[in-house]
Write a structure and sequence with these properties.
The protein is mainly alpha-helical. Helix content is about 75%, strand content about 0%. It is built from eleven helices and two strands. Strands 1-2 form a two-stranded antiparallel sheet. Helix 4 packs parallel to helix 9 (about 210-230), helix 8 (about 190-205) runs antiparallel to helix 9 and helix 8 runs parallel beside helix 11. The relative contact order is 0.13.
Length: about 270
């Protein structure tokens, strides 16, 4: 009996999302379980390898999904990920905006006497490592959230509903942690929602080019990586972490949330899709 997978395209978005995730997990688990067992003595390496395998399978599964379900051969282009000059420029612009945003935020907090900057002889190495790490994180998360997930939502819902559902899921999936830890780091949750809104608006305001979202996301992660991993800042504890950021992460503080809100408003004003 021939299975008509094209019928999945007529299902409501929540069912399509569930089917996609289930199919991806069925492909990943036969590989992940042996890897977990082989690398059980090194949890960090196990996580890196298995999640790396999941990311690769996700990228392979998208074209298959497009061909079998939507009968489309260019889903990546539909998501806004294409090899064109405009996308490259948007990516670099976003990278610069994100990096300057983070560095500027910390400079402001430093000028207010809330933290001090410290030297690091390994700074250039940290900068290079941070760029590679941030680029990988931003590429993977943006293809998933502002690529595949946003596209599936926009097929069924209005731009505004798709926007808020996308941003909410972005925050929720980053907040899967023990209850005690979730309560302690709760200020990060609204910050993640605002960041999710800004990234969707950024894409829409640049002719649906995913490059701007990848660059902006990458720049934010890169800037924080440089300052955090490079140990370039020392907090003076003169104000509450709820202002500067819980665990030193500006997304979880009033200053970071205010900054992200301004960034979101800027991107939102440029978006005319609703």
């Amino acid at each position: 009996m021939k299975i008509n997978l094209h019928r999945i395209a007529t299902y409501p978005a929540p069912f399509r999302l569930g089917i996609f995730i289930l199919g991806l997990l069925l492909l990943w688990l036969p590989l992940a379980v042996p890897l977990f067992w082989l690398l059980r003595d090194n949890p960090n390496l196990s996580t890196i390898v298995t999640m790396g395998a999941l990311a690769i399978e996700f990228l392979i599964f998208i074209p298959v999904w497009g061909k079998w379900v939507y009968r489309e051969s260019q889903l990546f282009a539909r998501y806004g990920l294409s090899w064109e000059r405009g996308n490259a420029i948007a990516l670099l612009n976003g990278l610069a905006i994100g990096l300057i945003f983070v560095l500027g935020l910390f400079v402001i907090m430093g000028s207010l006497g809330w933290l001090e900057f410290q030297p690091n002889s390994r700074l250039w190495r940290v900068v290079a490592e941070g760029l590679l790490s941030a680029s990988a994180i931003a590429l993977g998360e943006e293809i998933f959230f502002r690529g595949w997930l946003l596209d599936e939502l926009e097929r069924d819902y209005s731009p505004k509903i798709a926007l808020w559902v996308n941003a909410s899921l972005f925050a929720i999936l980053h907040f899967l942690k023990p209850i005690a830890e979730a309560i302690r780091t709760f200020p990060q949750f609204p910050g993640l929602i605002i960041l999710g809104l800004a990234l969707v608006w950024a894409k829409r305001s640049h002719r649906n080019r995913l490059g701007i979202s990848i660059g902006l996301h990458g720049g934010l992660v890169w800037g924080y990586y440089i300052l955090n991993v490079g140990q370039l800042v020392k907090y003076n504890n003169v104000v509450s972490p709820w202002i500067t950021g819980v665990d030193g992460n500006p997304v979880g503080g009033a200053m970071g949330i205010l900054g992200l809100s301004l960034l979101a408003v800027w991107m939102g004003r440029r978006d005319r899709s609703g």
